[in-house]
Amino acid sequence: MNKKWEVIFDYLMYLIRENKVLPGEILPSQNMLKTKFGYSEQPIRIAFNKLIELQIVKSINGKGFVVQDKISNNLLFSFRELFPGSKNKYYDLVEITCNKQLSKMTGFQEGKKLLYFKCLRKTNTDEIILYQESYILRDKFKSITIEKLNESGLMLWIENNSNSIISHSSKEISFVNESDNNDLLNNFKDKDSFNFILDLGKVYDIFGEMLEFRKSWYDPKYFKWNFIEWRK
Q1: For 31-58, what is each residue's pLDDT tens digit?
Q2: Where is the signal peptide (predicted)?
Q3: CB-based contacts of 3: which residues, under 8 Å, 6+ apart?
Q4: Residue ranges making up the domain that contains 206
Q5: Cα Rg of the chain, angstroms
Q6: Strand partners for 110
Q7: Ramachandran area for residue 142 (φ above 0: left; ψ -120 to 50: alpha; else beta)
Q8: Residue 115: helix, strand or coil by DSSP?
Q9: CATH number of domain containing 60
């Protein structure tokens, strides 16, 4: 379980990331957050100070904590933003049992029932950007279907059809030049070489519970990540 300030921080980040509070608008006050979460002032103050440190918000006397424009803080909320105008196609949704090997890879508990599905992301000219395999807990998202995924995507479906509030994801990025994944190779069969950016990602809610494990292979020619490294 996250520390209290992290719960507040993740909730405020959710409001910003999902455009519930837009640049130039004011985040909920400390008193509102005290009422909502039942926390003291200290963890709430720590959360706001962290947002200020990251240049995500600024404090304005007599007004409150104002969200800054993303150009100002250079904060990337989603890898999806790397590919504006792209579209996803989900397919092959099946139920599986998490075995020892899968538990080690995904972090889900051994013996748990999972839903496994695949996804292709394409450009607006129908070129494949990535191939992705995802795992989610069946009991938590048992009403999800391929039709619903293709209608809205997983993140939007979770937001609109579950009690979970998505907070953040962790990513492990590497470069690979070979694979024994037949689906991956078949989808990219027209490539001159099988070089990929491999993204191992875990999506969490505001309470630190993992919602999804995803394994994504990007075509390197579409992968360009501009960011600022902050010195601490």
Answers
A1: 999 999 999 999 999 999 988 887 889 9
A2: none
A3: 43
A4: 79-222
A5: 19
A6: none
A7: alpha
A8: strand
A9: 1.10.10.10
